[in-house]
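Exercise 7.
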Amino acid sequence: MTENTSFFKQNKLVILTLIIVLMIGGFVYFIDNSEQVFVKQSASGQPYSGKAAIGGEFTMTDQDGNTFTEADLKGSPTMMFFGFTHCPDICPTSLTTITHVMEDLPKDISDNLKVVFVTVDPARDTPAVMKEYLANFDEDYIGLSGTDEQLKDMAKKYLVYYAKNAESDPKYYLMDHSAYVYLFDDNAEYLTHFSHKMQPDAISAKVQQAL
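Solution. The predicted structure, written as tokens, is:
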């Protein structure tokens, strides 16, 4: 038995553990840094170039009580975030980040960029509640609410996960939900998305690059 063979046999468990850790680390890095992970697949399993599987027709109600559909997104680019007004951390932080991004963008871009906040908690987030909540960030932001079925339909098309947190207080429940900020072009076509962990200057740079 050679010295190298003996070493590997004695340390096989350690080596295998290191390999697994490296593989997991690489996967996590890929997910955290990928901005094009949502790609529409063809029947053959090959991705259609440039066609994202995010977006589509929907009908919701805005903060002024008016019907709002995907057609209202067209005509200017849009940043969209799904959350809820009773969210204690991620939602207000993400909206604050978006506000900083809007302030950082060149005026010709920010003046033409919609910000849409879609609630995943329509039972509590009525149009009036959405309007009051968004006024804390920017009165021009659009808040969308709707029926459970309308939200379910939109969330499916926009690849948004949400569910009532079963461990929270039933009276003051929380919602679990995905926390990406989506960017759409002026034809309501998906361009890219940003993690809620990204800094405003990084998002601003990517928005300018995408637009």
